[in-house]
Design goal:
2 domains; DUF4145 domain-containing protein; 9 helices; mainly alpha; about 220 residues; single chain; about 75% helix; 2 strands; two-stranded antiparallel sheet; Four Helix Bundle (Hemerythrin (Met), subunit A)
Length: about 220
C-alpha cells in the first residue's frame, strides 16, 4: 500500500472533520441549520477530488458519486449537507483503497491495457515494422515504471532516473536495472530513427522482457 496516499487520505479526513466541527448555527432557512466555512470546504473538495482521481480514476463510481454529492440541489439543501455527503463518499474511497480493492482493480485494468499494447507491438514486429514495435514496447515499459514510482512514493522523471530511483529503493535489483537500461536504449534508437543500432531479434526479446517485467512487478 502506498504510504503517501494513505497519509493523504488520513489528513484529508481530519481536515473535513475539522471543518464540520467548526460549524455554527444558522438563523436562515437555507440548508439544515448549520453554517460551515464554504471557502475551506471548497478547498477540501478540490484536494479530495484530486486524490480520488489519482487513486480511483475519473470514470470510477467514487469520482462520479463525489461530483454528484457536492452539488447543492436547491432550497433546503446547503453546504453542510453537501459536506456530509462528500465525506461519506470520500471515506468509502478511503476504505476501499486501504482494503486493497482499488489497487487490485487498477492492476487488472492496467494489465489488460499493457497486454493489448504489447500484442500490438508483436503484430507490428511480425509484419516487418520492428522500429514501431520497439517504440510501443518502450512506451509500455516507461508507463510501467511510472506506476511503480506511484506505488513507492517516487517522483516521476525521465526513464533512466525512475529506473535508478526504483533500484535504489529496492523495488528491484541492479541486474534488472541494467536490463531496463538496455531496453530503453533500444527504444531510444527506434524513436530517433536509428534502426541500424538494433535487430529484429532485439525487439522480439524486448517485448518478451517487458511483458515479464510487468507481470513480475505490477501483477499484484
Amino acid at each position: 500500500m502506498n504510504q503517501k496516499i494513505t497519509q493523504r487520505f488520513t489528513s484529508l479526513t481530519e481536515e473535513i472533520d475539522a471543518i464540520d466541527a467548526a460549524k455554527t448555527r444558522s438563523s436562515g432557512d437555507f440548508g439544515d441549520g448549520w453554517r460551515i466555512d464554504s471557502d475551506a470546504f471548497l478547498a477540501w473538495r478540490v484536494k479530495a477530488k484530486n486524490t480520488i482521481t489519482q487513486v480511483c480514476g475519473e470514470n470510477s463510481q467514487h469520482f462520479i458519486a463525489f461530483t454528484q454529492a457536492e452539488k447543492i440541489s436547491g432550497l433546503g439543501d446547503g453546504y453542510h449537507r453537501a459536506l456530509k455527503r462528500t465525506r461519506a463518499v470520500f471515506c468509502a474511497a478511503k476504505d476501499d483503497f486501504e482494503g486493497g480493492y482499488l489497487t487490485s482493480i487498477k492492476s487488472l485494468v492496467q494489465a489488460e491495457v499493457f497486454d493489448s499494447e504489447l500484442e500490438q507491438a508483436g503484430e507490428l514486429l511480425s509484419n516487418g515494422y520492428h522500429v514501431a514495435a520497439a517504440v510501443i514496447a518502450g512506451v509500455v515499459l516507461e508507463t510501467g515504471l511510472r506506476e511503480l514510482c506511484d506505488r513507492n512514493g517516487i517522483a516521476h522523471g525521465k526513464l533512466d532516473k525512475m529506473n535508478a530511483d526504483l533500484a535504489k529503493n529496492g523495488t528491484y535489483n541492479k541486474l534488472q536495472q541494467k536490463r531496463i537500461t538496455a531496453l530503453a536504449d533500444i527504444r531510444n534508437s527506434a524513436a530517433h530513427g536509428k534502426p541500424e543500432e538494433f535487430s529484429i531479434e532485439d525487439v522480439k526479446t524486448m517485448i518478451n522482457e517487458v511483458e515479464q517485467f510487468l507481470a513480475h512487478n505490477l501483477d499484484h
